Amino acid sequence: MNPTRPENSGLFLSTVTRDGRPQNGFVGLEDIYGLRAPVSLVVLSACQTGLGKDVRGEGLIGLTRGFMYAGATSVVSSLWKVEDEVTAELMKHFYTNMLQRGMTPAAALRAAQNHIREQPQWRSPYYWAAFTFQGDYQQSIKVSSPTVMKIGEKRLVVVVISAMLLLALGGQLFYRHFRGFHSTVKK
Known about the structure:
The protein is of the alpha+beta class. The protein has one domain (6-186). The chain is 45% helix and 14% strand. It is built from 6 helices and 7 strands; from the N terminus they run ββαβββαβαααβα. The chain has a 3-stranded mixed β-sheet with strand order 3-6-7, with helices on both faces. The chain is globular, with a radius of gyration of 17 Å. It starts with 9 loop residues before the first strand and ends with a helix.
């Protein structure tokens, strides 16, 4: 997320096709606004995905608003840099609460955050409070039997998995760029 220039924000998908050819894997904010994605939930579990730029008369412009404009009923995103290990643990509990225990996404996130903050090593709000929920807090995610999924549920799964993969890839690209930058500076 680029809070000063939100139009440059986006997600990275794979930069290669299935047969190994290079492709542009960047999905920009403009692309997200152009989507027609009537999904129940989008989860952006990477660093600073909930940030944006406050534009007078428009409000906060960023990924959350883009996905909601595209049709998402709710979005989970983060307000600051998050640690990989604790985020993975938080997301594990979030999905378990929502998909196995039948909690709404808002309640599932709150319960997952409460679970994380009970762990001595992750007690600080830095570890668990970055994630926010925007949208319909009463909405339930209904999961039918694993063998028969409705089109909307498939879209939800695809969006969630894609967002997680994009964020992981973006993190790797950032790390490689950051590591290369620091090795150049040290020379």
